[in-house]
Design brief:
The protein is an all-alpha fold. The protein is built from three helices and no strands. It is flat, with a radius of gyration of 21 Å. GO terms for molecular function: adenosylmethionine-8-amino-7-oxononanoate transaminase activity; pyridoxal phosphate binding. Keywords: Aminotransferase, Pyridoxal phosphate, Transferase.
Length: 102
């Protein structure tokens, strides 16, 4: 951070996920504005919309998989993935497969 006063400053605004882009970066603002124009809220919760359907099709083409699951954050996605795995093994008759190695 540059400032007219000497010394060091603590950036108390940015998160470690975004601070490498700086504050008020024009490219980041443009991307946000572009996203907000067609869709201002993207929580799926049992619903869908064109951009996520297009993304799912692209992911399916790249991976060869037929389904995509979206979580609201890393913790929710991890929890859901673990639950889906447990259900899978239970549904195919192997409920004892319940250990996870991290």
């Amino acid at each position: 951070m540059r400032h007219r006063w000497p010394g060091r400053y603590l950036d108390g605004i940015s998160s470690w996920w975004v601070n490498l882009f700086g504050h008020n970066h024009p490219h980041v603002k443009a991307a946000l504005a572009e996203q907000l124009a067609p869709l201002d809220h993207v929580m799926l919760a049992g619903f869908t919309h064109a951009p996520v359907a297009q993304l799912s099709e692209r992911l399916g083409a790249l991976t060869g998989l037929g389904h995509a699951f979206y979580g609201s954050d890393g913790a929710a996605a991890t929890e859901s993935g673990l639950k889906m795995s447990a259900h899978h093994w239970r549904n195919i008759g192997r409920p004892a497969k319940s250990r996870l190695s991290v």
